[in-house]
Write a structure and sequence with these properties.
Blueprint: E1 6-10, H1 16-22, H2 32-46, E2 52-59, E3 62-75, E4 78-90, H3 99-113, E5 119-121, H4 128-136, H5 150-160, H6 163-191, H7 205-208
Parallel strand pairs: 4-5
Antiparallel strand pairs: 1-2, 2-3, 3-4
Helix pairs in contact: 1-2
Length: about 210
C-alpha cells in the first residue's frame, strides 16, 4: 500500500468491532460478540480517566491501528511512573505506512503531557518484525515476561526437587485423591445412591485412609 497521511483520534464505542479485529490475537477466546461487548466497556472506561487514552490511527479515513496508553507505576514495588503503550497493533495491510510510528509518537506526547519520563511497550517474543521495529525507534529490552500453566509449573518444580521432597508431593497427591473419594462416597450414601448403605465399613476404606494418618 502506498503511503497516505495518518491521522489519530480517540476511540469511540463504535470502534469496538475494529478493535476486536486489530487486537484479535490478544483477546480472551470466545464469541466475537462477547469480545466486542468487552471492548465497548473498555472504551467507555478509558474515556472517564485522564491517565488513560485509547488511540485509533486512520489512513485515508479507514481505521488502521490502535494502542491503549496508560500512566502507571513501573511495578508494585517501584512507584516511578511510566506510560504503558499496551496492545500496539496495526492491521497487516497498513504496515510499513507509518501507522506504528504515529501511535508511538502519541505515546511520547501522552508522556510529556503527564510529566512522565519513559514509555514502555511490548511485542510478542516470536514477532521478529515487531521487535525490530521497536529497536529501530530506540526501545531497548527492559524485561522478559514468561508464562506457563500452573499445573505444568508445579510438575516441573516437583520433577526437579530432591527425591525426599518428591515423595512428600506424591503423598500429598494421594491424600488429596483419597479425601475426594471419601467425600464422593459420603455424598452418595447421603443421597441413597451409594452401594455402602449398611453400618459396616466399605471395602478398601482402611487402605485408602493410610496417607491421611
Amino acid at each position: 500500500m502506498t503511503r497516505s497521511e495518518v491521522s489519530l483520534r480517540d476511540a469511540v464505542v463504535e470502534d469496538a468491532l475494529f478493535l476486536a479485529e486489530v487486537w484479535a490475537g490478544g483477546l480472551a477466546r470466545g464469541d466475537v460478540a462477547d469480545q466486542v461487548a468487552h471492548l465497548e466497556v473498555l472504551v467507555k472506561t478509558v474515556t472517564q480517566t485522564p491517565v488513560e487514552r485509547l488511540v485509533v490511527a486512520e489512513v485515508a479515513g479507514e481505521p488502521a491501528g490502535a494502542v491503549l496508553l496508560r500512566v502507571a507505576p513501573v511495578s508494585p514495588i517501584n512507584p516511578d511512573l511510566v506510560v504503558q503503550a499496551v496492545a500496539l497493533q496495526v492491521l497487516v495491510r497498513f504496515r510499513r505506512t507509518g501507522v506504528g510510528r504515529r501511535l508511538l509518537a502519541a505515546a511520547a506526547d501522552f508522556a510529556d503531557a503527564h510529566g512522565v519520563a519513559s514509555v514502555v511497550t511490548a511485542a510478542a517474543a516470536t514477532s521478529r518484525e515487531g521487535n525490530r521495529f521497536m529497536a529501530r525507534l530506540g526501545l531497548a529490552p527492559a524485561a522478559v515476561v514468561r508464562g506457563a500453566p500452573a499445573h505444568q509449573l508445579r510438575a516441573k518444580i516437583d520433577a526437579q526437587e530432591p527425591e525426599r521432597r518428591r515423595g512428600r508431593a506424591e503423598l500429598r497427591a494421594q491424600a488429596l485423591v483419597a479425601r475426594r473419594n471419601r467425600q464422593r462416597r459420603a455424598a452418595e450414601r447421603q443421597s441413597g445412591t451409594g452401594s455402602g448403605t449398611g453400618s459396616g465399613s466399605e471395602p478398601g476404606s482402611g487402605s485408602i485412609a493410610g496417607p491421611e494418618a
